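Before drawing any conclusions, I looked closely at one protein, both as residues and as discrete backbone shape codes, quoted below without any editing:
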Amino acid sequence: MKANHVLTVALVAVMACLFPHEGAAVVTVYFDPDQVATLEENGITWDTISCEGYLFTYTRDKLFTGGGSEPIGRPVRIPWPDGIEAQYVTAGPNPGDAQIKVQRVDGGVFDLTSFTAMLLANAGAGREIEIVPLLNGEEPLNDPLFFDVSGNYGQEFSYDTSPNPNGSTAELVNYDTYLINLTLDFALTALTLTDPSSASPVLAEPQTIAAGDLLLSPNPAGSRVHISLSGQRTVAEGRLSVYSVRGNRICSLMLDASGHTTWGLCDEGGRPVAAGVYFVRRESAAGPFGFQRVVVVR
């Protein structure tokens, strides 16, 4: 857990270099007893609240009858500020998945940096939370991002920007809406949102960024990325590995004697990788160094 936290902090710092800022990024961490929520809208099977500059719209099974003739609704098990509960809607005009929609009050872009979800029903094996990021009402990604939550009632699952075969939030950057869906009741019990105060999600001109002991340029990269060892002219152990956000190793690279190499944005078999977020890590006999983030654009 501590290693993941350190990696998250490092990646957030790298992200601050990747994107142009009008001001310092503002990180909001939920849920705290001092965070007061205001009811903004009350729908037939949903509610919307606001807190600290963000809007949360979540589903409620308000028309549930329990076998009777009148709607009684289902009780809430995780009330604010312990978290936000989303219920699978069993009755009414739009039955379907439990969903939490997150937006900024001002409609601006932000990052969904990390979250913890608690199951409020037995999910069993193979169940996943689906997160659909939106920008101006459109879905820029070809597919949603999936986060494994195979388990039982009361279990919690935490995800952040770390490479993880079960899911990573590294690609949830610079969107104005996030739809968080599950086919059964769940609650968010921890959530970190980052307002990058960014004028544009992509750099107009390639720039070099320093990340740990490696320099990556350009970043974002469209055809290749040059990698060099910062502050050193020679390197005893020059092996690098490139990983996907799900923790799969894409390829290996070798720094030359002066500490330089180039990644052509291809996997080990020479096939171009898809657009997205990748991580470069320097390996050594003493153990791996931290991950360095690179964005591939196509």
